[in-house]
Amino acid sequence: MRGTRAAKRYAKAILSLAKDKNSATKVQEDMLSILRTVEGSKELSDMLGSPVIKNSLKKKSLSAIFPNLNELTQGSVDLLIENGRLEILDAVARQYIYMYNEDNQLKEAIVTTAIPLDKELEKVIMTKVKELTGTEAKLKQIVDESIIGGFILRIGDLQYDASVSRSLNNLKRRFKENTYVSKI
């Protein structure tokens, strides 16, 4: 990923300053907004990385897109512009979010299901999260019909796969390994 090391350094500095000014939560909200917007718009991402578009136009565009940024977040964006590193804005936002969550012991659990979760299923998933990690987590859902049923739960580096597709693949593999069945 481009500029990851630099993004980590910028994010660490922004978080440190935000904690000093007691505005880490507000900057977190701004970074979430920036990340969602940049990831959701290929045109914006291309504009930020374009060497052809002048920095003054980029700054004006970002001010129009994000008119209510915290002064610390706005200062960080201005610093990225001055240093010619605006193309890593999304990476800085992602790293800031990660560092903020680690600092505040907030975990994000990503659950992939075949259908949208209802309240009852959400409780089952949250119970499994607590069982696996010992802590609560914020739940993010992805719907993927290819898993057929069940769920896949990811929390950081940990993955718990209770999907029907995994069970079917395991069964298929066992049938292939079983010499008696393969001769039939």
Write structural notes for this entry:
The protein is α+β, with helices and mostly antiparallel strands. The protein folds into 2 domains: 4-103, N-terminal domain of the delta subunit of the F1F0-ATP synthase (Peroxidase, domain 1); 108-177, no CATH class. It has 9 helices and 4 strands; from the N terminus they run H-H-H-H-H-H-E-H-E-E-E-H-H. It has helices spanning 4-20, 24-40, 42-49, 55-65, 71-82, 89-103, 119-133, 164-177, 179-182, and strands at 108-113, 138-143, 150-155, 158-163. Strands 2-1-3-4 form a 4-stranded mixed beta sheet. A hairpin with a 2-residue loop joins strand 3 and strand 4. Helix 1 (4-20) crosses helix 6 (89-103) and helix 2 (24-40) crosses helix 6 (89-103). The longest helix is centred in the N-terminal third of the chain and has 17 residues, at 4-20. The protein is elongated. Its main location: membrane. Belongs to the ATPase delta chain family. Keywords: ATP synthesis, Cell membrane, CF(1), Hydrogen ion transport, Ion transport, Membrane, Transport. It is found in: Cell membrane; Membrane. This is ATP synthase subunit delta.
How confident overall, as mean pLDDT?
Answer: 88
Report the sheet with the most strands, covering strand number, pairing sense and barrel closure: 4 strands, mixed
Outline type = elongated
| CATH architectural type of the largest domain | Orthogonal Bundle
What is the number of independent domains? 2
* Low-confidence blocks of residues: none
Q: What's the total helix number?
A: 9
Radius of gyration from the alpha-carbon trace, in angstroms: 22 Å
Portion of residues in beta strands equals 5-15%
- Would you tell me the structural class of the helices and strands? alpha+beta
Estimate percent helicity: 55-70%
Quote the CATH topology of the largest domain. Peroxidase, domain 1
CATH class label of the largest domain: Mainly Alpha
User: Secondary-structure element order, as H and E?
Assistant: HHHHHHEHEEEHH
C-alpha end-to-end distance: 49 Å
Number of strand elements: 4
- In spatial order, strands of the major sheet run 2-1-3-4
CATH homology superfamily of the largest domain: N-terminal domain of the delta subunit of the F1F0-ATP synthase
Protein name: ATP synthase subunit delta
InterPro entries: ATP_synth_OSCP/delta_N_sf, ATPase_OSCP/dsu
Family: Belongs to the ATPase delta chain family.
Keywords: ATP synthesis, Cell membrane, CF(1), Hydrogen ion transport, Ion transport, Membrane, Transport
